[in-house]
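step=encode ok
step=design start
structure_in=
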C-alpha cells in the first residue's frame, strides 16, 4: 500500500498485520492476558510476564476524532492492529475473526460452523485506539452461564445440561462511539384533559393549544456495535459498557484472545448513530411539551462538534444448536451482565396456560 493511499470508509476491509509478541520470560511461549490476575500470563508454565501494559490514570486521554474530517480522509497512521494477526471468514454467518496466528481454530466461534476460509487482506482495518480489558474470567463466565440456564424455566428440561458441556469463548468485539452537541427547536399541539357530561356519562376530552420550545443536549459515547458475529439485539441487552474506564489501546490485552474485525463501517455506523440520536432527541422534546398529551410534534435540530472513536469491548459468547436452530448466550466481559436466546418448551407453556385457566375458573366461580 502506498504512503498516500487511503482506505475506503464506505466498505469493510480485513484485519491488519504487524509486529509485536509477548513472550514468557521463563519458557518463551506467548503470554496471554489473564483477567483474573490482571497480567500477561504464560498458559503453559503460569509465569507472569514483566511487560508493562497501558493503564488508566488521572491524566489518561482517550483519543476521539472529528467525524466530518474522518469521513473525508483516514490517515495511514490510524490503521492496523500493531500485533501479528491472521483473519478467517465464516461462510455461514459471515463473521470475520482475527486471531493470534497459533490460535486459529477449526470452527467459527460465533456460530460453530466449520466453513472457515482465509480472509485475505485488501486494506488495513481502521485501528482501535482504546479498549476495555476483560475483567470477568472464564470460570466466572461459566458460573454466569450456568445461572442463566437455571433461570430459563420455560425452556426444555435437557437444555441446562449444555451449561456443563458447551464452551464459552472470550472475544473482543468492535464498537464505534459517537458524541455530539445538539440544539433543538420544537413545536407541537399541547393537549390538556378535561371532562364533560355527555348523555349522562362523564367523558374525557382534550383542549388543544399550540406550544413551542428549545433545548440543548449533549450525546456522549453513544454506542454502535460493529459486529455481525453476535446478535445486535443481545448486545443491546448487555450494554452499557463502561466507556468512562476505557484504556488506550495496547495489543497486550488482546494476547491470546480472538478479535472480530469491524464489519459495520464508519459511514454506516455514523448513520445509525444519527438515527438513534434523532429518536432520543424527539423523545426529549416530547417530554418538554406541556400538558397531558401532545400531537404533531416537529423537531428541527442543529448538530455540532460530532466526534467518534473506534473501541474494542470484551464479551463471553456461548453458541449452541438445539434442534436445527443456532442460539447465542452472551455476557458483558466487564460487568457480567447476561442475555441469551433459547428454545421454548411448548409442553411447559401449555401446562402454564391450563393452570392459569383453572385459577381463573375457580376465581370466577367464587366471585
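sequence_out=
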Amino acid at each position: 500500500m502506498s504512503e498516500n493511499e487511503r482506505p475506503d470508509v464506505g466498505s469493510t476491509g480485513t484485519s491488519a498485520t504487524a509486529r509485536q509478541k509477548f513472550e514468557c520470560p521463563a519458557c518463551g511461549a506467548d503470554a496471554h492476558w489473564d483477567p483474573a490476575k490482571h497480567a500477561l500470563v504464560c498458559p503453559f508454565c503460569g509465569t507472569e510476564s514483566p511487560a508493562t501494559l497501558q493503564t488508566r490514570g488521572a491524566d489518561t486521554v482517550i483519543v476521539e476524532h472529528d467525524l466530518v474530517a474522518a469521513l473525508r480522509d483516514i490517515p495511514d497512521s490510524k490503521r492496523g492492529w500493531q500485533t501479528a494477526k491472521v483473519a478467517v471468514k465464516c461462510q455461514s454467518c459471515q463473521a470475520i475473526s482475527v486471531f493470534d496466528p497459533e490460535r486459529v481454530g477449526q470452527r467459527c466461534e460465533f456460530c460453530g460452523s466449520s466453513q472457515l476460509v482465509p480472509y485475505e487482506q485488501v486494506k488495513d482495518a481502521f485501528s482501535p485506539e482504546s479498549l476495555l480489558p476483560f475483567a470477568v474470567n472464564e470460570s466466572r463466565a461459566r458460573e454466569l452461564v450456568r445461572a442463566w440456564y437455571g433461570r430459563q424455566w420455560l425452556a426444555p428440561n435437557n437444555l441446562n445440561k449444555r451449561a456443563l458441556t458447551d464452551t464459552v469463548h472470550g472475544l473482543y468485539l468492535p464498537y464505534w462511539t459517537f458524541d455530539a452537541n445538539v440544539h433543538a427547536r420544537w413545536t407541537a399541539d399541547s393537549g390538556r384533559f378535561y371532562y364533560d357530561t355527555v348523555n349522562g356519562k362523564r367523558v374525557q376530552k382534550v383542549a388543544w393549544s399550540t406550544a413551542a420550545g428549545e433545548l440543548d443536549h449533549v450525546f456522549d459515547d453513544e454506542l454502535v456495535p460493529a459486529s455481525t458475529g453476535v446478535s445486535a439485539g443481545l448486545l443491546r441487552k448487555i450494554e452499557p459498557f463502561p466507556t468512562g474506564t476505557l484504556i488506550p489501546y495496547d495489543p497486550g490485552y488482546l494476547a491470546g484472545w480472538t478479535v472480530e474485525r469491524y464489519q459495520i463501517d464508519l459511514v454506516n455506523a455514523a448513520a445509525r448513530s444519527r438515527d438513534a440520536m434523532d429518536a432520543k432527541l424527539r423523545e426529549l422534546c416530547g417530554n418538554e411539551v406541556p400538558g397531558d398529551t401532545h400531537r404533531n410534534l416537529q423537531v428541527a435540530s442543529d448538530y455540532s462538534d460530532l466526534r467518534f472513536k473506534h473501541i474494542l469491548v470484551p464479551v463471553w459468547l456461548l453458541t449452541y444448536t438445539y434442534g436445527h436452530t443456532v442460539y447465542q448466550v452472551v455476557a458483558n466481559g466487564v460487568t457480567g451482565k447476561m442475555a441469551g436466546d433459547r428454545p421454548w418448551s411448548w409442553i411447559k407453556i401449555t401446562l402454564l396456560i391450563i393452570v392459569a385457566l383453572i385459577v381463573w375458573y375457580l376465581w370466577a366461580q367464587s366471585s
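step=design ok
step=annotate ok -> The chain has a mean pLDDT of 81.
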